[in-house]
Design goal:
It is a single chain. The chain has a five-stranded mixed beta sheet, sandwiched between helices. The chain is globular. The longest helix has 21 residues. The protein folds into three domains: 32 residues, no CATH class; 48 residues; 156 residues, 2-Layer Sandwich (Nucleotidyltransferase, domain 5). It is an alpha/beta fold. Helices cover 44% and strands 13% of the residues.
């Protein structure tokens, strides 16, 4: 992110001076990450599909699976690709959010909680999005009770900024929740994320380590998104991926009936619940 802070058109401060202030090696300013080969991108898509089916597969099991499918791969390659994708080979959770041991970990607050109201609990997660010539990471923020996706963002890195942008948008549009649940990844334990929630007076909840079932509703969202949209298209780049995901998110929120809400869409369920809550509050205030 330091590279993004360098202003190449700044007449008052040279690029060398800006790099010294940021403690950024000048050579890194001109570094461009080498893309993955077409075959590695193909393997990554296969890994992603299999991981949705068997999230407990580690490097060894995934290597065996790909060999059984006719691919001549070794554990070293699969380990590197799974790390690049953010998939943890030990725990039952895609490790798109890396744990930072210096960050505070908050307790899981949803164990025996009855969550039936909109804006009571929100959750967030990150997933890997394959494209024809590369890949992106997607974060989504969801209302737990209604399953409505409140905001989402795409990024080509796993740094925290795109997560905080999605959080800011959701709070601005819908107001803050009472509780926010995520995994223990560094994006969700870092200062910017925690500070935003703290200022909004939101209680913070985090999944148990390796327990992907603690955030099950957003895991189901990823499965639906990938099988109903991502895997059906070979998007060339970020612009196409953003448009395709946006189209599916609109369909999911506005048109897709949800069994948990007796056929209501997530959007209908969210606003119906909000209206009922506001009506109850008005009645109580009059009484």
């Amino acid at each position: 992110m330091k590279r993004a802070m360098v202003d190449r058109d700044n007449a008052a401060l040279s690029i060398s001076s800006q790099c010294r202030v940021l403690s950024l090696p000048r050579s890194s300013l001109y570094y461009k990450r080498k893309g993955e080969s077409a075959y590695n991108l193909e393997l990554m898509t296969l890994i992603d599909k299999q991981f949705l089916e068997t999230p407990f597969y580690g490097v060894r099991q995934m290597t065996w699976h790909l060999k059984a499918c006719g691919h001549k791969v070794n554990k070293k390659r699969i380990r590197r690709l799974m790390r690049l994708m953010g998939l943890m080979p030990i725990y039952q959770k895609p490790n798109t959010s890396r744990l930072n041991k210096a960050h505070k970990i908050y307790p899981y607050l949803l164990g025996k909680l009855n969550i039936t109201q909109a804006n009571h609990v929100w959750c967030a997660d990150i997933t890997y999005i394959p494209m024809r010539k590369g890949f992106l990471y997607l974060v989504a923020i969801m209302d737990w009770a209604s399953r409505r996706v409140l905001s989402w963002r795409l990024s080509n890195t796993l740094e925290a900024d795109f997560c905080v942008e999605a959080l800011d948008e959701a709070i601005l549009k819908f107001g803050p929740p009472k509780i926010f649940n995520t995994d223990q990844g560094s994006q969700f334990t870092g200062f910017k994320w925690i500070d935003t929630l703290s200022k909004a007076k939101v209680r913070i909840s985090m999944d148990g380590k390796g327990r992907f079932m603690d955030n099950i509703f957003i895991e189901r969202l990823w499965r639906s998104l990938k099988y109903e949209s991502v895997y059906l298209h070979a998007w060339e780049g970020g612009r196409e991926a953003k448009a395709g995901i946006g189209k599916w998110m609109d369909f999911y929120n506005l048109k897709r009936p949800h069994a948990a809400h007796k056929g209501l869409t997530p959007d209908n369920a969210y606003w119906k619940n909000r209206q009922e809550m506001e009506t109850d509050q008005m009645i109580q205030s009059v009484a």
